[in-house]
Design brief:
Blueprint: E1 2-5, E2 14-17, E3 19-20, E4 27-36, H1 39-45, E5 55-56, E6 60-68, E7 80-83, H2 93-96, E8 118-120, E9 123-124, E10 126-127, E11 137-141, E12 145-147, H3 154-174, E13 182-186, H4 190-202, E14 206-211, H5 214-222, E15 227-230, H6 236-244, E16 248-253, H7 258-266, E17 268-276, E18 298-301, H8 309-321, E19 331-335, H9 340-349, E20 354-358
Parallel strand pairs: 5-10, 13-14, 13-16, 14-15, 16-17, 17-18, 19-20
Antiparallel strand pairs: 1-2, 3-8, 4-6, 4-11, 4-20, 6-7, 7-12, 8-9
Length: 360
Amino acid sequence: MKAAVFREVNVPMEIEEVSVSKPGPREVLVRTSAAGICHSDMHFWNGTYPGQVPMVLGHESAGIVEQVGSDVHYVKPGDHVITCLSVFCGHCEQCLTGHMSLCQEPETSRSAEDEPRLYQAATPVAPFAQLGSFAEMMLVHEHAVVKVREDMPMDIAALIGCGVTTGVGAVIHTAAVEPGATVAVIGCGGIGLSCINGAVIAGAARVIAVDMVPAKLELARKFGATDVVNASDGDAVAKVIEMTGGGVHYAFEAIGLKVTAEQSFQMLRKGGTATIIGMIPPGDMVSVHGVDFLYEKKIQGSMMGSNRFRVDMPRFVDFYLQGRLHLDDLISSRIKLADINAGMAALESGEVARSVIMFD
């Protein structure tokens, strides 16, 4: 099969021939239909986070089941599925207490003694996040996929595999935003826009979008933002506090920077909660004023929207088909696998929400 292979930091990827193994007893072979280009891929490609090379990046994807292993009963060939990097074992403490997105059990990967899922000659090729969706096929554990209805467009379904679930989930699961609350979202890329949309679904009375790109702020209004703040025009924190008469109940950071994480905490009113979704570079320390804890202000992280993806994703599909999730506007361009480097460059520029690779 053809795949975009990541071999060196900040070096354009080449489209190469990569071999894929046969499904093991609990594995599923999926023909990729669509794959979104996400900032998580960028963080590894540009070296912000360390990763094993050679690697096939990509994790926000949807496709059609080609083959299943002997012990797989959840899906069958022909089923439409969304993939998710929150691969779960189903029996560890995190899974049994409802925190499946935090499962780290190694059994969902192949061991070093097994044939690698992807390889070139005798060299293993690592699938990013156990998925590797910048490729024509994905060989994954059965607990990395969820069945979805066949009338769901595959390019839109792919977005639910990461960005939408991360953003909406952070609002409804991690932070548990309640009706009537005030919300600020810093960063209006794919995840931030999904946060905004999720806040509207949760019943937030006021949703303030914060970004430095006017086009993204305008797009945020389509997703339900009641107010926008251009952070390049002055002190965004002061503006949010003034607009709300003291700060918001909930703030979400969807960029992955120390300064914006700190700003999200500073935007809170007494008793407020800041949720950090973005991938802050390793080693960066986030500082907050200790006195704020006396006012019961909280700061927390969110991993993939604290999802239970086999429950959440079919619901998000229904929300989209009902017109409640505005996912069409998330896609800035549809490209081919051969255009992967241009898609990565567009994402890094900060001017687009999502480029989606189409394989059909």
